[in-house]
From TrEMBL:
Residues 384-506 form the Integral membrane bound transporter domain. It holds the Pfam family FUSC_2. PANTHER family: MULTIDRUG RESISTANCE PROTEIN MDTO, P-HYDROXYBENZOIC ACID EFFLUX PUMP SUBUNIT-RELATED. Its main location: membrane. Residues 681-714 are annotated as: Disordered. This is Integral membrane bound transporter domain-containing protein. The keyword Acyltransferase does not apply. The keyword Transferase does not apply. Belongs to the YccS/YhfK family. Residues 688-700 have a biased composition (Acidic residues).
Length: 714
């Protein structure tokens, strides 16, 4: 993609306004927290203090809107604590330019590295830098700095208290995550009716798994509807794929295919009903037509072999899903010994070792997060010095704009930069005009600031340009409380925001961290993870007596995490203005489709695992042995642009096929697996040699995808 096209796409993305579900009650609660803090400070008679302290409640409220599975009061308090520390240090050093710049650069670097822990941690780190920059008053003593830090923390405490006292849709995030997974499976069942090998995105199931992790206290209070349906959703998906597959399941044409389509349609109806019940905390309501379809016809079973086993298992799983979801939704139960298997979410102190490991893993030159941290630290320091040197006042707005728009990848940084400037123009224009016409007093300005906060909370998910407009107007009215002239505020805000946005975009152009060169490493990591998943399943056919379901489950989760890392990397690479030095877009899509098929057919085989007392399969044993050796060579070949050769594996399968007269499920799935691997080899063999680009250094990243607390596949 050329630079002109990349910038055009980034601008279009930044100015896009999306239609999304609004949450007015939560927005009102968040804006009430800001209003309480401002009102108390004005009641005490200190407008400047009201301006300073309002940012604590404002920033704590923003973080509680993020898609995190942690309790909202905990998020508000954790962010408020970090804001208080950054405020205290910032106020102490603000009187000395050199000391403050050094503190700002170091703190911003740590905030940039916080993206290694997770997106919510990264956003919280960004907020702490913003609060450090917004030094409205400059205390001259340690006691004064502590007072301002306490007020910032008080704002977060108010938000946390309101969340506890006025809960809005408790467990709503967890319910939505589980309902989205069930609804996505319902859509998958419908697509399978028309496309028996339709792809499936496991991301909703990964989100549902994250949402199901609870603390011991939450496990005792969790609604009954959130106890079991996720595990059933995990088991339903491979059964759907197995029933629809024309090789393993129902034939492609004929009465059996018609029966399979009926079952898939009924399954979609049941899954949608269960998803609706979970999302809205209501009993399940099923149409009688779907229930009738899920019964065995009076004429007897119409499916045979593996398809019949899949159909019976699907009917049983759907019945369990309805039964679990249809229990009293308000009832809770204590954690018993039988329920010790729930996913345990570590407490905040126990997250420290994992966070340190994540930071250590990303502390390398080739890491895009490490380069982002260096980039944002340099821009923040340079922006502050430039803003201070300009004759506007409030020079912190330039680095503030840079820090708020900068993200670890190119597309988000540029799109947010465009959105930030355009939103600021609209926000300061409207607020400045209102200030010029109405000349509102201190209390009216405070009320208008609270209204802007409420609009920002309400419209937060519609687009960053809308959010920026609300924030810009909020700042104008907030400074109006302290008596700042609106003319100066508008001029400063526009010029310094433009400067900060330009610095952010220029920094990425001069010091990039392109994702394109990493595509082959990401693809190799996905191939290796898929291979371990396939080996774990085939090993169970080779030695059924040594069955280890946990090993298969862990391999599946690793495969999903590798797939998520690949898809994220591919999406970033598509928007970068560089000639491909990893994989061309066409080859990347073809290779991704081949590995997706590899994961799908392995999942189908998992449905039909043999019992512990079943005889071992010599063919599966030989196939697994050769697959292990072939995967090591193939993974290396993908990274080093070598040729993929599956001839040895194909020869083992042919011997297995000649010896197996029954053509069992494992043999047929192995054939499908080989076809997927051949498609991968074909996709990569069609890749042209890249043109040399001496001005761009390769930025290879051979590490596997890392998991974090908030976005891991586990």
């Amino acid at each position: 993609m050329t630079w002109s096209r990349a910038l055009k796409e980034a601008a279009r993305s930044g100015l896009t306004i999306e239609r999304t579900k609004l949450t007015p009650l939560i927005a009102i609660r968040g804006s009430a927290g800001v209003a309480i803090v401002i009102g108390l400070c004005l009641w005490l008679g200190d407008p400047a203090l009201a301006v300073s302290s309002a940012f604590g409640a404002f920033s704590s409220g923003i973080v509680t809107f993020q898609r995190s599975m942690r309790p909202r009061p905990v998020l508000a308090l954790a962010v408020a604590g970090a804001l208080a520390v950054s405020t205290f240090l910032g106020y102490l050093a603000a009187a000395h330019v050199v000391a403050f710049v050094l503190l700002l650069a170091g703190w911003t670097f740590l905030a940039g590295m916080a993206w290694a822990i997770g997106p919510v941690s990264g956003l919280a780190g960004t907020q702490t830098v913003a609060i450090m920059l917004v030094t409205v008053t400059l205390p001259t003593s340690v006691l004064g700095a502590a007072e301002h830090a306490a007020l910032i923390f008080f704002g977060g405490l108010v938000q946390a208290t309101l969340i506890v006292v006025f809960p809005v849709r408790p467990w709503g995030v967890q319910r939505d995550a589980l309902a989205d997974a069930l609804a996505d499976e319902a859509d998958y069942a419908r697509r399978l009716r028309h496309d028996p090998v339709a792809p499936f995105d496991p991301a909703p199931l990964m989100d549902a798994r994250l949402a199901s992790a609870v603390t011991p206290r939450q496990a005792r209070r969790r609604p009954v509807q959130l106890h079991g349906p996720r595990g059933l959703a995990e088991r339903v998906r491979p059964v759907l794929a197995s029933l629809a597959d024309p090789v393993v399941g129902a034939p492609l044409e004929g009465p059996e295919r018609d029966r399979a389509r009926e079952l898939l349609g009924a399954a979609a109806t049941v899954l949608d009903a269960v998803a609706h019940a979970v999302r809205h905390a209501r009993p399940v309501r099923l149409p009688p037509e779907a229930m009738a379809t899920l019964e065995v016809p009076a004429t007897g079973p119409m499916l045979h072999g593996a398809a019949r086993r899949s159909a019976y298992r699907l009917i049983a799983l759907l019945a369990d899903a309805v039964e679990l979801t249809d229990e009293p939704v308000e009832a809770t139960r204590p954690t018993t010994e039988a329920e010790r298997g729930h996913l345990l979410r570590p407490s905040v102190p126990k997250l420290v070792p994992g966070a340190l490991r994540a930071l250590h893993r990303e502390a390398r030159w080739t890491s895009h997060i490490f380069r982002h941290a260096l980039r944002v630290a340099a821009v923040a320091a340079a922006g502050y010095l430039l803003g201070t040197a300009l004759p506007f006042g409030h020079g912190y707005w330039a680095p503030l704009a840079s820090v708020m728009v900068m993200r670890p990848d190119f597309a988000q940084t540029y799109s947010r930069g465009v959105a930030r400037f355009s939103g600021t123009l609209v926000g300061v224009g409207i607020a400045g005009a209102l200030m010029a016409v109405a000349h509102p007093g201190m209390y009216v300005s405070a009320g208008l600031a609270v209204v802007c906060v409420g609009l920002m909370y309400l419209l937060m998910r519609t687009g960053f340009s809308v959010t920026s407009a609300c924030v810009a107007a909020y700042v104008v009215f907030l400074l109006g409380i302290a008596g700042a002239g609106w003319e100066q505020t508008v001029q400063e805000r526009v010029v310094l925001t433009l400067l900060g946005g330009l610095l952010a975009m220029l920094s990425y152009a001069l010091f990039p961290a392109w994702e394109t060169p990493k595509l082959r490493d990401r693809l190799a990591a996905w191939l290796a993870a898929n291979g371990q998943y396939a080996l774990a399943v085939f090993d169970l056919y080779a030695t059924p007596a040594e069955r280890r379901p946990r090993q298969v489950r862990d391999a599946l989760l690793d495969s999903r995490a590798a797939r998520a890392a690949w898809e994220e990397s591919e999406a970033r690479a598509e928007k970068e203005p560089v000639r491909h030095r990893g994989l061309s877009p066409a080859s990347a899509k073809a290779a991704g489709a081949a590995l997706g098929t590899m994961g799908r057919v392995t999942m189908i085989l998992e449905v039909h695992l043999p019992e512990r007392d079943a005889a071992s399969s010599p063919g599966a044993t030989a196939f697994a042995f050769e697959l292990r050796d072939s995967l090591e060579e193939a993974t290396r070949a993908v990274r080093e642009r070598g040729e993929l050769n599956w001839s040895a594996l194909r020869a083992v399968w042919e011997r297995w096929d000649a010896e197996d007269e029954n053509r069992g499920v494992a043999l047929r799935v192995a054939d499908l697996l080989l076809d997927a691997l051949d498609d991968l080899a074909e996709a990569l063999s069609a890749e042209p040699e890249p043109e040399p680009e001496p001005e761009l250094e390769p930025d290879a990243d051979s590490g596997a995808a890392h998991g974090t607390e908030e976005n891991s596949g586990r």
